[in-house]
Amino acid sequence: MATCQKENDSRGRVDLTKLMSSGHPVAWLAKLSWEISEAVACRDSSPVVRIYKSMNCAVTAWHVSDWIWQFSNQRQREHLSTVLKCRRLGSLKDFCRAVQRSCPAIGLCRQIVTAVKHVSVAYNRAEVSTKVEMVEDGSHYRVLIVDGDQNHIDTDVYYTALEVWCRIYVHLELDLWEEVQEIWHHWK
Question: Which of 77, 103, 112, 119 is the Cys-Cys partner for 58 at CB 3.0 to 4.6 Å?
Fold first, then answer.
């Protein structure tokens, strides 16, 4: 377990004492995987339950970026710029932009999460929205992420984001990367 920060100014520092999990980025991959399975299995008669499950997936899918950035070193970040096909990753902002270009699903998550948390979205894409609908047999609800004229089932978007994050995690060889690679054996 990590120890508390002793300094008064801890802005920008990782404080593992505030976490309820292992304080490790691999926990966020596991959390996202679990949240996706919860959303897929949701058969609640209330659309609100399904909406909240979708929101949780989007939040986790977007914030994996913070964890991968914070836990990667300079060498890994240089490798990451090659993986993401960009010139340089000098900041978290650069990384977030590059990963969104590389994986539009992660960009969709960012749009949703920023709106959920902050109400307004900087760099808003007006063509991105969400809608909730009852499935054909009337047994439960699903959430769709609309990107222009394309409707995406939300869990498909989140699963795509998870796969990309897992690939990045393995490419960087972050702690426990072998286990992540083993879980996602179908893309070795």
Answer: 112
